Amino acid sequence: CVTCSPGKYRPTPGTCSPCTGSTYTSTSGEISCTSCTGGTWANADNTGCISDTTCAAGSGQAAAGGTCEVCPIGKYNGAEDDSQCIICPTGKFNPNTGSTAISDCEACPVGRYSVEYATLSECTACTPGKHNANTGATLESDCLDCSTGKYVETEAAETCIFCPTGKFNPSTTGASSVSSCSDCQAGEDASDDSTSCVTCTAGK
């Protein structure tokens, strides 16, 4: 028993013939082709119908019934139909236009997050004084304040930095400048976590 593939039909047992003209079959095993209707015509392999508003993969309609436009950054569309481009999931971004698959949406790198999708070519950066060590962050709150004893002056930081030698920060979280670190007094040095000062041992 022969099962004819989409785009073909079985006119007689054991044979397959291609659909022609504006006819199609979209599933296997059909015994006849179906005619396209409503101002549409068969696609190149006669597996479905298309119209003037059928968009190629990597593009989509700007609005229902509208014209086709290349998918902008932050979106994709793998279908060849009249659908619209799809927004990348939260925690991901897409810096390219004309994308055809969800795999083109990349996870936000460390130090960044995406609540919806990147409207520019990258995810939103954590602000100075905050850090994020995980990829695919979906919330601004995923950017954590630097703990006491640390600071970071740059945006999109993965980690915060300990206060310099001889300086400490006992109480300020989310410090965005080294100026938040204070000098230890003479004869003292900062503790290992830079949150306090300790008396130097003899000879040091």
TrEMBL record:
**Origin: domain of life:** Eukaryota
Q: Which Pfam families match?
A: Ephrin_rec_like
Alphabetized SMART domains for the sequence: Ephrin_rec_like
Ranges of residues in domain Tyrosine-protein kinase ephrin type A/B receptor-like: 65-105
- SUPFAM superfamilies membership: Growth factor receptor domain
Protein name, please?
A: Tyrosine-protein kinase ephrin type A/B receptor-like domain-containing protein
Q: What is the lineage of its organism?
A: Eukaryota, Sar, Stramenopiles, Ochrophyta, Bolidophyceae
